[in-house]
Automatic annotation (TrEMBL):
Species assigned in the record: Acidiferrobacter thiooxydans
GO molecular function, one term: xenobiotic transmembrane transporter activity
Transmembrane regions listed in the UniProt entry: none
Protein name stated in the entry: AcrB/AcrD/AcrF family protein
Protein origin, superkingdom: Bacteria
Amino acid sequence: MAAVDPPPDEPLNIAGRLTRYFIDSKITILIVVVAILAGIIALRTTPRTENPQIVVPAANIIVTKPGASPREIKNLVVDPLQAILRGMRGIHHTYGLALNSMGVVTVKFQVGENRVASLVRLYNKIMSNMNRMPPGTEQPVIQPLDVNQVPIVTISLSSATMSGVRLRAIATNVLHHLRRVPGTSRSYLIGGQRRQINVVLHPRLMRHYDVTLDDVRRVVQATNVEIPSGHFTNHNRRATIHAGTMLRSARDVGQVVVSLYNHRPVYLHDVATVTDGAGRIKTVHEIGFGPAYSHTRPHNIEVPEVTIAIAKRAGTNAVAVADAVLHKLRALQGPVIPNGVHVNVTRDDGERANSAVNTLIEHLFIAVATVVVLLVVFLGWRAAAIVTVTIPLILFVTLAVDDMGGQTINRITLFALILSLGLLVDDSIVVIENIFRHYARAGADRVRETVLAVNEIGRPTNLATLSVIVAFLPMLYVTGMMGPYMAPIPKNVPIAMITSLFIAYTVAPWAARMWLKGRGDALHDRPGLLQRGYARAMRALLSRPWMRRGFLFAIILLFAGVLAMPVLRIVNFKMLPRNNNNSFDITVRTRAGSTLEDTNRVITALGNIVRANRYVTTYDLSTGAMGAINFSGLLRGETLKRGPTVGEVQVHLVRKSERPVSSIAIVRSLRPAVDRLIARTGAMIKIVQHPPGPPVRATIMAEVFGPNYHKVQVIANDLRYGLFAHTPHLAGVDSTVPHPSMQYIIKVNRREAALHGVSAAQVTQTLKGFLSGISDGTAHIPHAKEPVPIRFRVPIADHVGPNDLGKLFVTNPEGREIPLSALVRVIKRPAPEPIYQKDGRDVEYVTAGMSMGSPVYPVLHMWQYLKHHTVDGVHLTQDFMKDPSSLHYGLRWSGEMRLTLNVFRDLGSAFGVAILLIYVILVGYYRSFVIPIIVMGSIPLTIIGVFPGHAVLGQYFTATSMIGVIALAGIVVRNSLLLIDFILDYRRAGHALTEAVVQAGTVRLRPIMLTALAIMLGTAIMVMDPVFGGLAISLIFGTLASTVLTLFVIPLGYFAYATFSERRGQPPQIH
């Protein structure tokens, strides 16, 4: 290795020392090879997901207390549970729901809390406080809510000819095989009909044979027994004994002797019809086929389906797991899945993640190619080749670090790399450009000149890179779900920047020495047309004070005008724009008291609406329950939604790459027909589009609190049907206040029951058995993969009404049949309403979606209205960031508005911290309080480009736009810092102030413009992305405006400062 002596008056800095060591070292080529291999391995082994995995530990705690009213459940179950949990570490919110006989408390932990540790603490806390639960309370059921419960693959098995039982049996067998695929976790079936032994009791025959429901249940329970009973030993051989008789078929159940009549046995089949088949239909699941369906469609419009839902294990590769599941599925078609069954993959998150990642890798290559072409034009092909070589090395190292850190390759990771592309080539551009200038010297020693060139720009380059890093690092402290969602940016950009700095000091000089063979390869020092024009303009500004003042005054006016754009709504704010997806959901809730048939008619009508759209491939119709859950549905609490009044349609579209229309436009085209259906049926129908970022419970949500719950409900209803209903662009306005409904209370006359020797439990069990059926045990059927219950019920034709209780009988201990009408009385009254709580306080929610536009402005409109108007005679206090006082009626705005405020607050704080850190670093570097302010003067200049850029392109200023502004702080400070450093270098070389300012700008013009163009062209590919389009707009237009203005404003600022200091006799330090 050749020794290179530094100049006698200045030792080599770290940049120079690194270059001197690696410029002809054999280790350099090893660095290149290792970086390439590490990157290739990382690309192949790192798990791929569409978005970063957001860890939000949560759980539902379900406690039942039979017979308790919602008010009792609230007071005795929900309130004590929330009080128990309030002292737990890491809990963010608790949500309570009190229903008839059941209470649900949903616990949401802080984002990023360890999931396993949180759930263990939760379980221990609940179990150790069970003594605080009231008597009669059953053991709490704790259901974890985890993103890994969301299925990544859903498979629809459908048939127009098979029964629901047969279809479910096939699906159960398929599921049994798919569960064996490595990497899968929770898997389950949706739809079909479970197999069960139906015992349809005939009341007339039961009265004839003097048999009651209690008799039948008691005998069947006693008969369906088989237990180990010991062993026999005979001839020195031991054999175990099992005593009893299991019921293994419908025939076995029918042969059970339930009574004696005239000294002859009465079999169960004498008083009932016993069949092996499906039970009463409680849910309906069908699949429909749209115009864009590419395979052979069944003759029926919609056919019954069973959905197989497969989730992946935490930490596994969604792409690999999904591919393995689908490969296994193809192998099962034929041997396990018969030909008459249609198989459709309705969700494939692995394919979606792979497509998203591959698309962005393609965009990354396009961005790299664009930057390479730019470098070839400005630097020549040899220099461009050197910088080009450094790009994949940096990207490979960054991906390898991600792989070692347990990160995934996702959209945000790749956007971070595209974002950093313009930044990471900057180091190499600055180094190569300075080497060019040194190579232009005749007879120069290449090794020595290379080291000196790198050494010359080492300190400002280090400082500039550090400024970029500290601009991004505060983003790690963004709170809520946006924190981990955006975390790959502040994690990957610093890694890429540090790597780029190391590569620029090691590989780039080594390559320059190897590939640049003669002076013709170096850029000429003679100024070009652009530099000459810049020098003339700068000299004119420096020599004419009036022109200088006019220029600065014009910039101030321009800055003030740009700041007015958001106030005048020329630029609008939004959390994130909507995404163009391949699917969307339509949720349905019919009026209280509606039957399953009523809801199914609404669902069928929705199927007719979506089937008319030419881009629909398939759609899943669910009545009585929701379909396969997704992440946003998990956070909205859809796992708890069941019953005859709920339903959902999941619509699947042609891939977005194959259709000219976005899913946003498709949803907008469906709204008029959906609105007409709402007006006709009175059902609550919401079109839910999957958000591009972290989901929220509702786009717009008002949480209404107050000291009197009934008054809170009245206020919530008034808001729903008044202010919300009349605010433009709101859709799907809803509230948690239920529609009034009636219920029948059958009260047991304790005196009459005691006189007849009948207990209240006998009465209630008899009623349940005859009205809704009752299960007692299971049939032990070989090879059945699901339990087969034995269910007793009466035919629908024999169902009784409130006035028919005389047809039902119970038997007292003396064997007498007592009609229920003699023991009970029927009361009709309003059904009790559920009670909602948040953090131990009664609350009602009013929610809405958006038909178009940003939710920020409707919320501000309603906020302004409520400031000057009352609701039901009450003036509501309003808060955005905290809950209102418990002593007054108040409203807290939540939903996307709250998320928007939180994110912009956190990003604004991160921006402030970044500016402070950059200032502290610059003060330490320049040993001055004023020069850092001049250097950082380029930061506000970015706004002059950012807001007009969003206005010109008609885009919202989003959270990612703000991230772009933060990134610009580091980028533009880098340019200012190099300008000031070169001015000081020229001053130290003895140049006059004016000449130093002009020469520094002229010399730095080309690399600054080259870096700016690299950033703008590298991020241009992101402009059309729904999430990161705002970031790209900020970077492109902010870089353009700031670069052009920085080249004038920063030198003029330093010139004014130096001139003023010299007039005071205190010239600024230049050493």
